């Protein structure tokens, strides 16, 4: 059985858990990270030198980095509906997965740590204002994409890209700040809430 090392409050771990739900793939979750087993031990560092979750072990194969993991699982289990085999369709999915990992993640990080986690190191008002503006800008990019597709982020049908993007939309909606009105994003979120995997693993992940 697939072994997942991480904690369900982590947005990156929840990508993997939701993917497993979409694939109806059984797994065992071992809780590692802050509040659970430490990730800075020699045993864990041998699995992931970055000391971060998630890590999976699939038989004798160990893998870290959440977006790589979800791509691997979809490919290994032949989930072409989630992760197309055709090059251009797959590239479109990859484009949005990578955008979430780079631009969108960078945009929301400071605001989330400040407003949700209440981190003392993230309470500079000027930096928070700039972060909120950048986050809103990224979400407006997503709004325009969803207006174009009329369905999901990479096209009219749910794909692997909607897992990291959907979790980020959840984070956006549950972070208390003055957000712009984005009706296509709101409609998209309602569609995601119809999926059992999202209903189980879509929470904001506050400690």
TrEMBL record:
Its EC number is 2.5.1.18. SUPFAM superfamilies: GST C-terminal domain-like, Thioredoxin-like. One of its GO terms (molecular function) is glutathione transferase activity. Residues 86-207 form the GST C-terminal domain. Keywords: Transferase. Pfam families: GST_N_2. Gene3D superfamilies: 1.20.1050.10, Glutaredoxin. Transmembrane segments: none annotated. The keyword Transferase applies. It comes from the Bacteria. InterPro entries: Glutathione-S-Trfase_C-like, Glutathione-S-Trfase_C_sf, Glutathione_S-Trfase, Glutathione_S-Trfase_N, Thioredoxin-like_sf. Residues 1-81 form the GST N-terminal domain. The keyword Secreted does not apply. Signal peptide: none annotated. Belongs to the GST superfamily. This is Glutathione S-transferase.
């Amino acid at each position: 059985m697939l072994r997942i090392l991480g904690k369900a409050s982590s947005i990156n771990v929840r990508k993997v858990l939701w993917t497993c739900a979409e694939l109806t793939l059984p797994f065992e979750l071992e809780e590692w990270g802050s509040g659970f087993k430490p990730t800075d031990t020699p045993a864990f560092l041998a699995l992931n030198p970055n000391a971060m979750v998630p890590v999976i072990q699939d038989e004798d194969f160990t893998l870290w980095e959440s977006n790589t993991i979800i791509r691997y699982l979809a490919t290994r289990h032949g989930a072409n509906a989630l992760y197309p085999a055709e090059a251009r369709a797959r590239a479109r999915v990859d484009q949005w997965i990578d955008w979430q990992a780079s631009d969108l993640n960078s945009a929301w990080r400071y605001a989330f740590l400040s407003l949700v986690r209440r981190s003392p190191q993230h309470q500079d008002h000027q930096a928070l204002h700039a972060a909120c503006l950048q986050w809103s800008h990224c979400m407006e990019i997503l709004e325009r994409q969803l207006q174009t597709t009329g369905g999901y982020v990479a096209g009219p049908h749910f794909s692997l890209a909607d897992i990291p993007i959907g979790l980020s939309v959840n984070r956006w909606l549950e972070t208390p700040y003055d957000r712009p009105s984005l009706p296509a994003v709101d409609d998209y979120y309602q569609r995601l809430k119809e999926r059992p995997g999202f209903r189980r693993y879509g929470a904001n992940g506050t400690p």
